[in-house]
Design goal:
Strand order of the largest sheet: 3-2-1-4-5-11-10-7-8
GO molecular function, one term: O-methyltransferase activity
Keywords: Methyltransferase, S-adenosyl-L-methionine, Transferase
Bound molecules: S-adenosylmethionine
Order of helices and strands: HHHHHHHHHEHEHHEHEHEEEEHHEHEE
Shape: globular
Pfam family, one: Methyltransf_2
Protein name: S-adenosyl-L-methionine-dependent methyltransferase
Length: about 475
Amino acid sequence: MSARIMELAQTISASVAEIDKTLSALGLQSPSFDEDAPTEYRPREVSDARDVVLDATAELHDLLLEPLFLVKTKGARWDANKPGHAIPEQQFGLPPSYRPLQHTRHDPPNGQLSFGDIGRRTKLGEQMTCRLLRHAMTMRIFREPTPGMMLDALQKWPLSQEPNQTGYSLSKNTSPTIYDIIGSSPSQSALFASSMVVWARQPYNAPSHPADGYDWPALLSSPDHNVTNKNKTNNKDRRINVLDIGGARGHVAAALASQHPFLDVVVQDMAAIVAGAEQEITPPELVEQKRVRFMAHDLFSAQQPRLLSDLFGHDGDGHEAIVVDVFLLRWVLHNWADKHCVAILRSQIPALRRGARVLVMDACMSDPADGNDDDRAGVEVEVEVLGKDFGAGALALPLWKEREMRYRSEDLNMAAIFNARERTLREWKALFTEADPRLVPKRVIKPEGSALAILEVLWLPSVDER
Ligand SMILES: C[S@@+](CC[C@H](N)C(=O)[O-])C[C@H]1O[C@@H](n2cnc3c(N)ncnc32)[C@H](O)[C@@H]1O
């Protein structure tokens, strides 16, 4: 058997050749540092081969470092002076992901400790233990030989789910959360709203993903569409009503309504965020024709069916039939710890009618159990990637992306700012069930090139239908 470093060198060589061949055949530019360098890797063959090269080059690089040097160089710091990166460094100058190292000295049975064991010893609880150790695993510090083990971080409020008991709160020595601050000042709201637009300019976060990645036209033929379609026998006359909850200043709503002429979207967000947002919607006809509208509404307040009927239209008896076809929560729930997500989901219930869809668009993190066909228990949800059905293993990310998702851009960053988190498919399922068993996840769709997946959840009050 050849040495791992030789295997990696061959993998890199073959995959780089594949990238070069595909780019040349399609007449596309090769990667460079020029001003006009390509900004994304397409088509799929190129982006898949790129993932292989990035993981293999990183592994080769790490293998060629001494173990102690590896730990030291990967010891990225959460800087207590930077908002959002404010978990104080731990002893020995190492970041929190490494704290469980201390506990591996306790001679665990079979050389393994469970996430729960480490969580009890560190007093950090199983969930945070698991998240921190999974981040450390992306840097080759630990291994998870069987799914469901690991670890630590937040010292002052170790198990808190409150968004005002975070590293951000400590660094600012403040009690209001970031959203409290944003919601209370027009200038902060404007700044935040424009940061959302910039965030959405990155190809993997583009508003085109929810517009292209979900089969919106199929809703027109669904037997469960809204009351205003009741007497319309022809699909082309029907309208589909979408509530974009936490939709900021409507960049996703505008993409949806532009691309699908049968969609009418109401955006709900904090008053300071939606103020004057109509003026920024392009094309302006979307606002003139009332296809994109805005409504100040707190995420945690119960939806008011009567108010929504007045906005979207009703047929007089509008209590039992669907008014809103789709409740969209894009990139909202990852800002909140479980108990608050449960509250947000429950606040939709007064307006949910049989067959209504809750679409949650958020990251779906890799779960070591997902790749194992023998361990699919609890993941009966259909997984669709590029329109094809796969097992949950299809959600596995290349290591370089997972490392990024677990640390700087997402999971641990969400912990430091909001005590919030990214979730695996299993964790999403558990969250919906905790919120209400009538919220039944049916599918998870991973649009090509999108960092976020679409979880399609149906409101099914009857047990027989679930
Ligand atoms: C990360 S942004 C996502 C924005 C948009 N959905 C997107 O996909 O780009 C989260 C949104 O939740 C909104 N939000 C946070 N707390 C809220 C609250 N209590 N009530 C209403 N909206 C809230 C924020 O203003 C923000 O627009």
